[in-house]
Amino acid sequence: MSATPAASSAPLSPLSFVHPTPDSPWGTYLMQVDRVVPYLGHLARWVETLKRPKRALIVDIPIELDDGSVAHFEGYRVQHNLSRGPGKGGVRYHPDVTLEEVMALSAWMSIKNAAVNLPYGGAKGGIRVDPKRLSKKELERMTRRYTSEIGIIIGPQQDIPAPDVNTNPQIMAWMMDTYSMNTGTTATGVVTGKPIHLGGSLGRVKATGRGVFVTGREAARRIGLDLQGARVAVQGFGNVGSSAAELFVQAGGKIVAVQDHSGTIFNGDGFDMSDLLAHVKDAGGVGGFAAGEVLDGEAFWDVPCDILIPAALEGQITAQRARRVTARLVLEGANGPTVPTADDILAERGILVVPDVICNAGGVTVSYFEWVQDFSSFFWTEDEINVRLDKIMVGALKKIWDTADRHQITLRTATFAVACERILTAREERGLYP
Ligand code: NAD
Fold it and tell me: What pTM did the predictor assign?
């Protein structure tokens, strides 16, 4: 595999309401699409479809706070592409959420769902809020009002939300209940990532981290990197980062550095996972964990390691940080953690990147299993889930790897090539209405 052409100028957006830069999420996505055009053959005619969301809804979410005052929050639900099936993608609660970010995340969901061949389009939602500042009751009121507002475009056959940053099974339960109350149904299939008692699936909570591990295990095998003793650095120790870390430790690796919103810690001998997980549960983050050296945030990128797992937010691996990464393998647990200029630098330095659009697809794959189980009202064992997940991830990665080898392109461009071909074939076969 070799590097794709360099990209440094701002991508052109055909839309009037976003102004992407080369490193912004939507700008990054547009550049990734441009890079795949040479591999699309006659389907390149339809590529404009991918450069604009099908539908973008902005909603006002007024709620009464516990002190009796009224607060307004801005929420979004974007359906990027529905050619291959209903929309599917998570909901993020974060103070930095913007329409542009949600558009990019929804577009990456279109690519991801097609890359693992799930019968879904891509969608994403978010609320611009710091949920840590809300009480549980306020969080519930905000979630329910948001669900009601986006209720006009979601549904088990239309668009199925799921957890993302700062959202969890409890929030999915409130969403499912609100939608069900509004439609006079018990619509378990309207969201995934639900609690088990409400039609949730075994294995869903850790599925994204498991997918990161499975693609990492396969990539490591192919480049001759032994997981026994492998040093792993993880940014973001939430659902994705901590689940992936646990599996790498079980496979013989050691977690030498962890960074989250509360701090950065280092231990060359590897952290004890159960102690670290217990600390994070109590303290809300890795900051203050005694069994490690405290590092300055920027020093995280210089830590000697074999595998780097960005599992926090977008835009973390900048060009400047990409020059310092010591790992041989980067596993993108987060969505959009590497900007295009950094991608080029990593490729030039011979560092293999397993891109988000395949690496973190384990979560949506088990969400798909959950949705199928809800429809059939027949539930699988955790072993069945994990075996099927492993098989789908390994098969999808193999197809992508073969495509990368055939065209001598990066795994990211190969994933886009496989996915865009599937999406645009569906687009062409369905035709334009009217
Ligand atoms: P989470 O809320 O459980 O965890 C997020 C983690 O990121 C936390 O440890 C937080 O402290 C850390 N973080 C936040 N801001 C940070 C900063 N500025 N610097 C360093 N760390 C920071 O979220 P999650 O579900 O684990 O999602 C993490 C990433 O994985 C996101 O990009 C998300 O879109 C992606 N993802 C999640 C899923 C899923 O199933 N949850 C699926 C696919 C992709």
Answer: 0.96
